[in-house]
C-alpha cells in the first residue's frame, strides 16, 4: 500500500507554509515541515558552539552529524498557529526556531551530505502511514522523487522581502527592507548552489510564481493542479 505524496518546494517566503497547511487540512494528510528539521539541527549546532556568528568559520560536519543522530523529532499540528509544533526529544521547541537567524544556521548545516542523509529516513517514513504534504527544497527531487504531485513555488526576492517587512511591522517589530532583502538573497544563494540536494524544481514540477498572487490564489492553483494529477 502506498500513500499519496504532494511536494511543495521553493525558497522561504514564497508562501509554501500556508498552502501546505491548507492542503494537509483539506485532505486530512500529515504535514512534513522539512525546513524545521534543518532549523532544529542549526539551533542545536549553534547551542553546542559549532556555529559562530562569523560565517567564514568552518563548521565541524562530523560533530553536527553526531548531534543530528541524537535528535528525535516529531510534528504536531497546531490549529491556532496554522503550522506544526516541533517536538524534539520529547520537548516542544519554541517559535524562536522560525526566525531568520536560525534559518541562516539551518542553511549552513544543510550543505552537509551526511547530515541530510541522517534526516532522510525520518522524512521518508512520514509517507508510510498516511497521505503527506511535504514542504521543503528537495522534496520533489531527492526525498520523494516518485511523488504524485510536485509544485515549485517561487516569488521574486523583493516580493518575499516585502512580505517579511509587513509581517514584522504587523507584529510590532522593526523591519529594514534592504537588510532583509540581502539576508534572503544570501540564503537563496547558499541553498541553490550547494552540491547536495540544491533547491531547484523537479523536472515534473508545476512552476508557480506567487509574486503577484495572494495566498488564496496560490492555494486554488495548487488545488487545481492536484485535481489535474488525479
Ligand atoms: O523552509 P525553511 O526556511 O524553514 O528552511 C530553512 C533552511 O533549511 C533552508 O534555507 C535550507 O537551507 C534548509 N532546507 C533544506 N532542505 C529542505 C528544507 C530546508 O536544505 N528540504
List the helices and strands and how they pair.
Elements: E1 5-9, H1 16-27, E2 30-33, H2 34-47, H3 61-69, E3 73-78, E4 83-88, E5 91-92, H4 100-109, H5 113-125, E6 132-136, H6 139-143, E7 149-154, H7 157-170, H8 177-193, E8 206-209, H9 215-228
Parallel strand pairs: 1-6, 1-7, 2-6, 7-8
Antiparallel strand pairs: 3-4, 4-5
Helix pairs in contact: 1-9, 2-4, 3-5, 4-8, 7-8
Bound molecules: cytidine-5'-monophosphate (C5P).
Descriptors for this entry?
binds cytidine-5'-monophosphate, 230 residues, 9 helices, alpha/beta, three-stranded antiparallel β-sheet, Cytidylate kinase, Cytidylate_kin
Describe this structure in words.
The protein is of the alpha/beta class and 230 residues long. It is 47% helix and 17% strand. The strands form two sheets. A five-stranded parallel sheet has the order 2-6-1-7-8. Strands 3-4-5 form a three-stranded antiparallel sheet. Helix 7 (157-170) crosses helix 8 (177-193). The model has no long low-confidence stretch (mean pLDDT 95). Bound molecules: cytidine-5'-monophosphate (C5P). Cytidine-5'-monophosphate binds next to helix 2, helix 4 and helix 8. This is Cytidylate kinase.
The portion of residues assigned to helices is 40-55%
Small-molecule binders here are: cytidine-5'-monophosphate
Q: Give the amount of beta strand, in percent.
A: 15-25%
Provide the low-confidence segments as ranges. Answer: none
Structural class: alpha/beta
- Biggest sheet: strand arrangement: 2-6-1-7-8
Number of strands: 8
Order of helices and strands: EHEHHEEEHHEHEHHEH
End-to-end span in angstroms? 17 Å
Total of helices: 9
What would the average pLDDT be, to the nearest integer? 95
Keywords: ATP-binding, Cytoplasm, Kinase, Nucleotide-binding, Transferase
GO molecular function: kinase activity
Enzyme class: transferase
Catalytic activity: CMP + ATP = CDP + ADP; dCMP + ATP = dCDP + ADP
Amino acid at each position: 500500500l502506498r500513500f499519496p505524496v504532494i511536494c511543495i518546494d521553493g525558497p522561504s517566503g514564497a508562501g509554501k507554509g500556508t498552502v501546505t497547511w491548507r492542503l494537509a487540512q483539506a485532505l486530512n494528510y500529515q504535514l512534513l515541515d522539512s525546513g524545521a528539521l534543518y532549523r532544529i539541527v542549526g539551533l542545536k549546532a549553534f547551542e553546542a558552539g559549532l556555529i559562530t556568528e562569523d560565517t567564514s568559520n568552518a563548521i565541524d560536519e562530523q560533530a553536527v552529524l553526531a548531534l543530528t543522530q541524537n535528535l528525535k523529532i516529531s510534528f504536531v499540528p497546531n490549529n491556532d498557529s496554522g503550522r506544526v509544533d516541533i517536538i524534539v526529544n520529547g520537548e516542544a521547541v519554541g517559535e524562536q526556531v522560525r526566525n531568520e537567524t536560525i534559518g541562516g544556521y539551518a542553511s549552513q548545516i544543510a550543505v552537509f551530505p551526511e547530515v541530510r542523509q541522517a534526516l532522510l529516513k525520518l522524512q521518508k517514513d512520514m509517507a508510510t502511514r498516511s497521505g503527506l504534504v511535504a514542504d521543503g527544497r528537495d522534496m520533489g527531487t531527492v526525498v520523494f522523487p516518485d511523488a504524485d504531485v510536485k509544485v515549485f513555488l517561487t516569488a521574486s526576492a523583493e516580493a518575499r522581502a516585502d512580505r517579511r517587512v509587513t509581517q514584522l511591522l504587523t507584529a510590532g517589530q522593526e523591519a529594514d527592507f534592504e537588510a532583509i532583502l540581502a539576508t534572503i538573497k544570501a540564503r537563496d544563494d547558499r541553498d541553490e548552489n550547494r552540491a547536495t540536494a540544491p533547491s531547484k524544481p523537479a523536472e515534473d514540477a508545476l512552476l508557480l510564481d506567487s509574486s503577484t498572487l495572494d495566498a488564496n490564489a496560490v492555494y486554488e492553483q495548487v488545488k487545481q493542479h492536484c485535481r489535474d494529477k488525479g
